[in-house]
Amino acid sequence: MFSFSALSALCNESLNKLNCLAASYKVYIFSNEEKRNLSLGGHVGFDSLPDQLVSKSVTQGFCFNILCVGETGIGKSTLMNTLFNTMFENEEASHYQNGVYLRPRTYDLQESNVHLKLTIVDTVGFGDQINKEDSYKPIVDYIDTQFENYLQEELKIKRSLFNYHDTRIHICLYFIAPTGHSLKSLDLVTMKKLDSKVNIIPIIAKADTISKSELHKFKIKIMSELVSNGVQIYQFPTDDEAVSEINASMNAHLPFAVVGSVEEVKVGNKTVRARQYPWGVVQVENESHCDFVKLREMLIRVNMEDLREQTHARHYELYRRCKLEEMGFKDTDPDSQPFSLQETYEAKRKEFLGDLQRKEEEMRQMFVNKVKETESELKEKERELHDKFEQLKRMHQEEKRKVEEKRRDLEEEMNAFNRKKVAAETLSLSQPLKKDKDKKK
Amino acid sequence: MTTNIRYKSRIPVKTEDSAEEKQYVGFATLPNQVHRKSVKKGFDFTLMVAGESGMGKSTLVNSLFLTDLYKDRKLLNAEERINQTVEIIKHTVDIEEKGVKLKLTIVDTPGFGDAVNNNECWKPITDYIDQQFEQYFRDESGLNRKNIQDNRVHCCLYFIPPFGHGLRPVDVEFMKALHEKVNIIPLIAKADCLTPNEIKKLKDRIREEIDKFGIKVYQFPECDSDEDEEFKQLDKELKECTPFAVIGSNTVVEARGQRVRGRLYPWGIVEVENQSHCDFVKLRNMLIRSHMHDLKDVTCDVHYENYRAQCIQEMTSKLAQDNRMESPIPILPLSTPDAETEKLIKMKDEELKRMQEMLNKMQQQMHDKD
Which Gene3D superfamilies has this protein been placed in (chain A) (predicted)? Predict the structure, then answer.
């Protein structure tokens, strides 16, 4: 049974932390002369503080969000069913989605008296398209949206953080296909985009297709590729002595090679979850068959609380800082005096209004300019037309003059011709007279 | 069942009856003669393997032909594969068995489906197949046809990953681009990650999707009606088993007292040649022992002829447009030109005539002027 009551183990973690705090407090006392270390004369009872903390968190209930990234059919839903030992409702996804979309589902689980609100986010359609260049975008957007929602809640005036349903992704399980050679190019690209936003644990899915020797080589190859490309995966914490040893050894087994199954097979005189093949039975909880037990141990029984903390303290803080810096907030002003949020808000608001006014002015200016431009254009055109008209008029005048000239020329010619004609006639008239005269002679 | 049994010579037993002796002509020995000649000539076969990296293609080829074709292979890292293009690599080996020589060419397609953007990643493959067809076409239409090298791809084994729920878009697109150029045999790779139930479900799913998308994979020919029942039964089983779920192995392990090819797991040993473990034996029998020649025939008679007809049609329509007699290939008249081409040809003819007339007229004029 998935020992969910080991969630109280995470309460023990908080207990440990409180103890550490107490220890550091003692040191502080020594260095500061005003505070003294007193010894107690009897049993006061504040050693029950961790228990109070634990009981409070138990009543509150816990929240955990898992993101499963992997190609369709790689075994994400089956592994979730196997990890939490229940059947979450799931239909088989199709390979023909146009893009990647995320499907979050929230479940309420209970073990002993510990309540867990579990959200499993599935990536549907991942790895199916022919062009996978944009496949990582919906995933990154989803993670950012959850951070944004939390940030909005945090920045509210009237906020209720203790009641808030935290949907930030605490862990991303990246399912690697068991090709036996190396990571796929899509895996590398996607993990690089996700490593600064979420805790990634890479796992080798359907590991019952890889033999032991091949698995060893495969794991080494994967880890070396991740390291050489600067992908930061989640390291189990080794600073807490209670769990540092087991965490350190588990870190060496990454990525976990898992096999999932919800079917039960009889082996010997026990019924275990396993996969039955003609050549043997792969038992899910047998450590020499696969690393399922290691994954369950690490993910749920030992480090769940650390994952939540890392998400909040590291990934969320990074997001928040980037977001606020974008908006123009700083921690200290040029004089190194801490800014008050209110002043910053005022300043921002003024800036914003000023921006708005400026933009309005700009637009108005632009409009005026445009009008002037158009006006001048029109004037130019008018002038041109006018010029043309003048030109045409002149041409017309010119033509007219020429025509006039020609007419005068013609008239002159005609007159000249008429005169000649008359002259000729008179001449011809006088000629026959002459002839007559000659004749008469 | 081996091919030898099928092609047993059918010489009838000579009886003492002289009447029957007179009726025996003797051409029943033809199959024997064919057998002898073919053994002398040797065979060739070109096999293409396609599929994503890590599907076990090389291992399967090694298991099929019991040799090691991929001795010094360099596998790329994930970052190198982000923008990888598909390459075509040929390995040719000469193998011999019982006096029969086989020149085996394996065409490998590393890089298929490995990049992040796999748009048209099958284009280099279709180009390669077309190139081989073109080369054979030229050789066949040439003057000296004695030593034609047949590099046409006879069969393409396509490896479908077993991790999904059926065919993926890239599988569908690839098969649709190639199903009219080459015999495609889809295989389910790495079948040792599926239980028998899951295998059955996946096979049904894939068969359904192949029908749905109209992909024409290689169909086994119907067996003759005079074959024996055993053969017919085997043939039927074979057909119901497609696509074959295969497992390959480069290593020999000890199982049940014997040394067999297999994979050693902590929970058991998978034997490659065990029929209850996977369909490897069926694939091998089909590919090598019974249908190798049929694959070659279908390539020659169907795919190559389609290509040739298409090629010729394109060429003649181009010729009619260009009126250039450049191609060295003798053009045979098309037996059934389609109506459109005919119309085009007629139009172009008329245009030609008109231009010719104009030319003549102009020449005439020039002469007159002179």
Answer: P-loop containing nucleotide triphosphate hydrolases
